[in-house]
């Protein structure tokens, strides 16, 4: 039995305490790692949907192409995340998934997830909670695009990324790597790349955030949270499943 908790296990423990059997069931899902490099695609929008994927290392994102050719980025996937949960009930992928930085992941045929559902009520509930959290993040992204100004959008996104990364990384001290290009950030925020650059300059002048290429240092998290109007409850409550028993 594996003794070192994987990112997926650490992620799932945010939702519920797991016993050894449940941890081993999760480790079984990560037995056949696959390595992909930046720019590789996991799958494409419209292709047959028969599997999920779990990221062990690296970053990925999902996107869709609009009729005018523009790209809309939907999700940013981090170590421990499950990709494709929203498409479990569909026969076609609803979005393409591309690797941001070198990535280790495991593909999970839907039948493997069915095995989890048959053997563990708690893990079934955790998978449902993870899927619900992903849906909540999309809703919050809609609010970001529709109701927040440019600085508010980026401030909110940085608070969200910091909160998510904190779940699988200790002692971050407000500093983390954000391997997203200016154009990617623009496609997430619904802004131009030039506007994104100006906003980061403004956040720096306000002594809220320093950004050096792909390194981010949140200098005053409390003030950034206030500027963004950020609340982390949409990212899932710690041990919510245990508390509901």
UniProtKB/TrEMBL annotation:
GO terms for cellular component: cytosol. This is Crp/Fnr family transcriptional regulator. SMART domains: cNMP, HTH_CRP. It comes from the Bacteria. Residues 148-222 form the HTH crp-type domain. Coiled coil: none annotated. The keyword Manganese does not apply. Keywords: DNA-binding, Transcription, Transcription regulation. One of its GO terms (molecular function) is DNA-binding transcription factor activity. Pfam families: cNMP_binding, HTH_Crp_2. InterPro entries: cNMP-bd_dom, cNMP-bd_dom_sf, Env_Response_Regulators, HTH_CRP, RmlC-like_jellyroll, WH-like_DNA-bd_sf, WH_DNA-bd_sf. The keyword Transcription applies.
